[in-house]
Amino acid sequence: MSDPTLYPVSPEWAERALMDKAGYGAARQQAQQGPDAFWAQAATRLDWITAPTVIKNVSFDRADFRIRWFEDGVLNVAWNCIDRHLPTRRDQTAILWEGDEPTDSRAITYGELHGQVCRMANVLKAQGVKKGDRVTLYLPMIPEAAYAMLACARIGAVHSVVFGGFSPDSLAGRIEDCASRIVITADEGLRGGKTIPLKANVDAALERVSGVETVLVIRRTGADVAMVAGRDVAYAEAAAGVSDDCPCEPMNAEDPLFILYTSGSTGKPKGVLHTTGGYLFWASWTHELVFDYRPGEVFWCTADVGWVTGHSYVVYGPLANAGTTLMFEGVPNYPTVSRFWEVVDKHKVEIFYTAPTALRALMREGDEPVKSTSRASLRLLGSVGEPINPEAWRWYHEVVGEGRLPIVDTWWQTETGGILVSPLPGATDLKPGSATLPLPGVELQLVDAEGQVLEGATSGNLVITDSWPGQMRTVYGDDQRFFDTYFSAYPGKYFTGDGCRRDEDGYYWITGRVDDVINVSGHRMGTAEVESALVLHDDVAEAAVVGFPHDIKGQGIYAYVTLNKGVEAHDDLKKALVAHVRKEIGPIAAPDAIHWAPGLPKTRSGKIMRRILRKIAENDLTSLGDTSTLADPGVVDDLVKTRAQH
Ligand code: PRX
C-alpha cells in the first residue's frame, strides 16, 4: 500500500499559505505547551456574545470524566454563519446550489440566506419548537436543508439530520431515539434522474413511531403527496405567513447543536452529540487551515448533509468562514461521467473535496471525461471518508489536478466533528495514501491490543490522548455507552476504532477499522445492523456479516447466511434477501455477496469467529490460523469449498 514518493510543498504554496512548515511546527508546540492560551486565541475567530474565560475542562478518566470547552462562553451558530457577515457580504453568494439537472442552479446570497433561515426559524417557533427540542430533518440536497439546520441553530433547537437514503425503519428508529416531535422533509428527492419518495417514507416511519405532531413538507418536485390533516404542514404556506426576521437565541458553548446517528460495532446506531462552541470552532478553524480557505472562494464538498462531512464542510465550516459553499443535489455520473468537472467549470470551483469511492468509479471511465473540461479554476483537492489507495491518489493528482494541485487526504470521524489528521497544503509534503500528520493540538498514539504505547515506525491501534474542541460530548441519552465505546479499551485515551501505521517520517497511514464497523463507499455500516436485518427475514436462521475488499466501494458487504431448516438456497432468495436489507436499512446496506453457510464457525462457547469469516471473504485461504478450537472445524472446510461460487 505504502508509496515512498514524496510530493513536496511547492514554493508558490509555501508563499501563499496561511500556515507554512515553520508555522505548523510553532502551532503544534504552542498547543502542547499552553493549550488554554492557544485555544483561547484561536477561538476569537468566532463572534461571542460572552467570550469564554474557561477554555478547556477535560478528563478522560472514569472517576471524573468530562469534556467541556469554552464552557462559560455564549454565542449563536446562525449568527456566526450568517448575521455577522451581513455588513460586508450581504450580496456575496453564500450557497451555490446545483440541482440534479445541469439546467437547474441557483445562487443564494448571505442576505437571502438570512431571510430564509429566519422564516424557517419562525415557522418552527410557530409550531411550538423551543430551545433544546430535537428536530429531525429528512431532506434532499436542497438549500432548505441548510436553512433548516441553521434555523434550528438560530432558535436553539437540536437538529438530527437523517440521510435521505435511509429506510422508513431506520428513520423511525432515529426519530424515536431522540423523541422528535417534528420532522422536516420534502415531497420527493431527485438524484441521478430518479425520484426518492421522502414524504411517503416519513409516512411509513410514522406508522412505527409515535410522538411526532408536525411534519413540515417542503416542495421539491411538486409531486402530489398525501397530507395528513392536523399533522402535515406545507412549508411554503407556513413560511408565507411569518416574518423574515428572527432574533438569535444566546446559547451556552456547551449547549447541544446537533445529533447525528452513526453506526458502531454493536447495537443500534449511536446518536453522536455535538455542542455549540467547540464544534463550530472546530469546523471553522479546520476548514480555514486545511483548505487554506479565504472568504468568498468557491468551495465544493460533494458530501450529502446527511453525513458529518456535509454538516462540517458543506454548511457550518464554509459559512462560518464567510464562504461560498457549493451544494450539489445530484450524483457524479448523471447525466454524464463528466458532471463533477462540468460543475467545477460552471461555478469556477476553487477547492474540491470528495471521497475516494467516487474517484475510483470515475477513474474506471478513463481520462477523457475529465480532460474534456478545463478545471482551470481549481487550486486544491481534498479526499475524505476512507483510505485513498495510491493509484486513485495519483489519478486524482495527475488527471484531475494535472499534476499542479496538492491533495489534502483528511482523516476524521463523525465523533471528531472535523478534520484531525491531514496535510496542510503550504506546510506538509505529501505521500500518496497517507493522511500525513495531526493538526496542531491533536495528540495521537499507536497502541497494541494490551494498550502498550508503540514508538517509532510501527503499526497499531490509533488513539488520541487528549481532547480537542470539536470532540463529541456524549451519545445522546446514553453517557455510559459513550464512555464504554471510546474510553474503556485504553483507559485515559480516546479509541478511534482505526488501525494505523506510522512510517519513519512520522507520517500516519490509516489502514481501516479494527472493530466490526465496515466502510462502504466512505459510509459507515455496523455489521451487527446488517445481521439484525437479515435475521428478520422469515427464511433466515442466522447471519454473520464482514467486510471484504471492493474495487469501487473500498469495502463491500459479505454476508454468510444460514437458512432455516427445509428452506432451499437459490439465487432468487439471494435477491430477496438483498432487497430485504435495502428495505430494512437502506440501499447503502445492501450486501454485495451472500454466501450460503450450512453452519458458522463458532468457538465452543458459541462466539462466531469473525477473523476466519473475514479471511474467507477476502479469499485469503492460506492463513486461516488455528481452527482446532472451533466447536465444529468441518464448518470452515465447507465454507472454503463453497467460496469460489461467490
Ligand atoms: O475508518 C476511518 C474512515 O472513516 C471512519 C469514520 O467514518 P465516519 O464517521 O462516517 O466519517 C467519515 C467522514 C469523516 C474512520 O474511522 N476514514 C475517514 N477518513 C479517512 C478514513 N480512513 C482513511 N483515510 C481517511 N482520510
Question: What do these coordinates show?
Answer:
This is Acetyl-coenzyme A synthetase. It catalyses: acetate + ATP + CoA = acetyl-CoA + AMP + diphosphate. It is an enzyme of class 6 (ligase). This protein is of the alpha/beta class and 646 residues long. The protein is built from 21 helices and 31 strands. Strands 12-11-8-6-7-14-15-24 form an eight-stranded mixed sheet, with helices on both faces. A seven-stranded mixed sheet has the order 5-4-17-16-18-19-20, sandwiched between helices. A five-stranded antiparallel sheet has the order 22-21-23-25-26. Strand 4 and strand 5 form a beta hairpin. The longest helix is centred in the N-terminal third of the chain and has 17 residues. The protein is globular and about 75 Å long. The relative contact order is 0.11.
Give the number of helices. Answer: 21
Give me the Rg, rounded: 24 Å
Mean pLDDT: 96
Q: What class would the helix/strand composition place it in? A: alpha/beta
* Ions, cofactors and other bound molecules: adenosine-5'-monophosphate-propyl ester
| Lateral strand order in the biggest sheet | 12-11-8-6-7-14-15-24
Low-confidence stretches: none
Say how many strands there are: 31
Give a quick account of the main beta sheet: strands, pairing sense, barrel closure: 8 strands, mixed
Shape: globular
Helix content: 25-40%
Q: Distance between termini?
A: 26 Å
Instruction: State which percent range the strand residues make up.
Output: 15-25%
Enzyme class: ligase
Modified residues (N6-acetyllysine): 607
Cofactor: Mg(2+)
Family: Belongs to the ATP-dependent AMP-binding enzyme family.
